[in-house]
Design goal:
The protein contains 11 helices and 12 strands. The chain is α/β, with parallel strands linked by helices and about 350 residues long. The chain has a 5-stranded parallel β-sheet with strand order 2-1-3-4-5, sandwiched between helices. The chain has a 4-stranded parallel β-sheet with strand order 7-6-8-9, sandwiched between helices. A 3-stranded antiparallel β-sheet has the order 10-11-12, covered by helices on one side. The longest helix is centred in the N-terminal third of the chain and has 20 residues. The protein starts with a strand and ends in a 5-residue tail after the last strand.
Length: about 350
């Protein structure tokens, strides 16, 4: 039996697809070694969407028409997933947008589900972290529906907490030169610069911030190997939100880290964990409700103890929002080229 994957294998978001693949493969290896679902092996049918809303819609039609697919995983970006939601909901195929943080995603219908922390929850936490270090901030955010929503939540919570946004500007995700905007951000004399976006653009932002002479605190980027590699030492001390740290001493997490290192000879990060947990969640739903499309939906609705590497406590999905209600991000800081929990930073 199959899960369909709509996600980026090529294009500007291809790195996320690569990280997903590692998490998927490790999870599937373990699931199938343990007997799969009802004795049947689980495999993936992957379509490269480049995380482009124009491509996710025909992919959704293809998956809905393929009766061997019992659930869909993806897409990476919220806009790409939201564009395809009407197709999945009409076709009654669960769309499990496991990285979709936009609050709009699960409004698409009864078949749109996500375990991802939402942007409002993220920014409630991030503004707490910012407040501890700054009262004046410059903010740059992606010029997209997702980026505008993210900035809107940041503005809302910043106002409540007395954080003064002294400069803000959107940036184009595919731009290679952010310096005209960053010079203005620097000249506003902020205590910190906040970037709301993804890893590749975040790496360019922090490098170019340092190039134009900004030496203060940076919040932004993502907990991915690509961000650390591209940003280099410019990002040392960067603070990000995440779901996971390889240094967590929880035995379950350390078992995952050990197996991941053995398989890939590298440290796992958030997007490996998102993918690993997503496979296990859908398998658990299928074992509970039945190994078919309606069984997956039943499992997501009724299982009370979903868990995973990226979740500190078991959870059930809220039936109205089709999201967990008790999931919070963790605060990570880049120290000596590795993201570690702020509480354990030296």
């Amino acid at each position: 039996m199959y899960f369909g994957v709509s996600g980026p294998k090529t294009g500007t978001s291809a790195e996320y697809g690569r990280l997903w693949q590692q998490g998927f493969d490790l999870a599937l290896e373990q699931v199938n070694a343990a007997g799969g679902i009802d004795g049947k092996k689980v495999a993936l049918k992957w379509e490269d969407s480049q995380s482009d809303p124009k491509q996710t819609v025909p992919i959704a039609t293809k998956f809905v028409d393929d009766r061997s697919i019992i659930a869909e995983l993806g897409d990476f970006s919220s806009p790409a997933s939201i564009a395809a939601s009407p197709v999945y909901n009409r076709g009654k195929l669960v769309q499990y947008g496991f990285t979709n943080s936009s609050t709009d995603f699960t409004k698409g219908g009864d078949y749109s589900w996500s375990p991802s922390v939402t942007l409002d929850t993220v920014q409630a936490a991030v503004t707490d972290w910012v407040k501890a270090k700054a009262t004046r901030v410059s903010v740059v955010y992606l010029e997209s529906d997702w980026g505008k929503q993210d900035f809107g939540f940041f503005q809302q919570y910043a106002k409540q907490k007395g954080i003064d946004i002294v400069y803000s500007s959107s940036i184009l995700p595919d731009s290679q030169d952010f310096r005209p905007v960053l010079i203005k951000a620097r000249d506003a004399n902020p205590d910190a610069v906040v970037h709301l976006g993804y890893g590749p653009d975040g790496a360019l932002v922090v490098k170019q911030l340092r190039d134009v002479g900004y030496k203060g605190q940076f919040f932004g980027g993502q907990n991915t190997p690509q961000f650390v590699e591209l940003a280099g030492t410019a990002a040392e001390g960067d603070i990000v939100n995440g779901v996971f740290s390889p240094s967590d001493t929880n035995p379950k997490i350390q078992d995952f880290v050990t197996k991941f290192r053995a398989e890939y000879n590298t440290e796992p990060g958030d997007f490996n964990v998102y993918a690993y947990d997503a496979i296990n969640a859908l398998v658990k739903a299928a074992k509970f409700g039945g190994a078919n499309r309606e069984g997956i939906l039943k499992g997501l609705r009724e299982v009370k103890d979903f868990d995973g590497i990226g979740f500190t406590t078991p959870f059930a999905f809220d039936q109205q929002t089709r999201r967990p209600s008790n999931i919070k991000p963790i605060q990570l800081v880049l120290q000596n080229g590795k993201f570690v929990p702020v509480a354990s930073a030296k």
